[in-house]
Model the fold of this input.
Amino acid sequence: MRIFVTGATGFIGRALVSHLRQRGNSVVAWVRSDTRAIAILGNGVDVVSMGAGQDALVAALSGCEAVINLAGEPILGRRWTARRRAKLRSSRVDLTGQIVAAIDAANPKPRVLVSASAVGFYGDRGEELLDESSAPRDDFLSRLCQDWEAAAQAAAGSGIRVVTVRTGVVLGRGGGALSQMTLPFKLGAGGPIGLGRQFFPWIHLDDLVSLFVTAMENDGYRGAVNGVAPEIVRNRQFAHALGTAMHRPSLLPTPRLALRAIFGEAATVLFSSQRVEPQAAKRLGFTWKFPELDAALRDVVGG
Done:
């Protein structure tokens, strides 16, 4: 199968491209820098420059059977200034809209679009158990996810199957949120965020990649799918498991005020509680390689 991938040089994208190629698929990556993409992904991946224009995008999509859309600026790491909010939106909503417009013009069209989203769709929900049918909230991140998913779902008007994967915190080697979380633990200052009562949806990178590929290949996947592990944990449980896997203490909480001072409003992502259940994946028979947190963390940071 020939598969078009955006966000191919990112943390998830690199793992996805490697997995797809190992399975004998050919990959077309839509990238900002050809030379950087080839250096990261290797010469076996065809690259199409974002600067080449819409006609080049349409031509590339016309030769592909599936599209996996992972593009998006990182949510954490910077304050949500007006400029940053606009960049978060353009890299998700506007870029997805551009892809969907090109899909509509492609001949032949891809058969399926699997597009990333996030559990931020649900907002801060406390103890409420959430599945794919749960309503969103009215905050910045939730609205961003809603618009992101709506931009992807517009491709259904072209007669193709659309899946939006609402990812939790992705645990893997070589990047992602975990690379930032481990530093305090290495220094002996790790612990929960605040009181650690908030639910913490997570998934191992291998399982997320497998879920994207399964959603692409299995026609039973349609609409929203929660990209999280079946084991539901609170942040304090996560901190304890991470400390155990690293053989480091996990007793010192990170004060909310300190995180707000660093990240501003973006720190709300760290405080939000989302008790998310992967109901759609369970119903469709998806099998997790790492359904339990302890094993997932041992694989990623154990040694």
User: Anything to note?
Assistant: Residues 164 and 224 are 5 Å apart (CA to CA). The domain at 2-169+204-228 is CATH 3.40.50.720 (Rossmann fold). The chain has a mean pLDDT of 94. DSSP finds twelve helices and eleven strands in the chain.
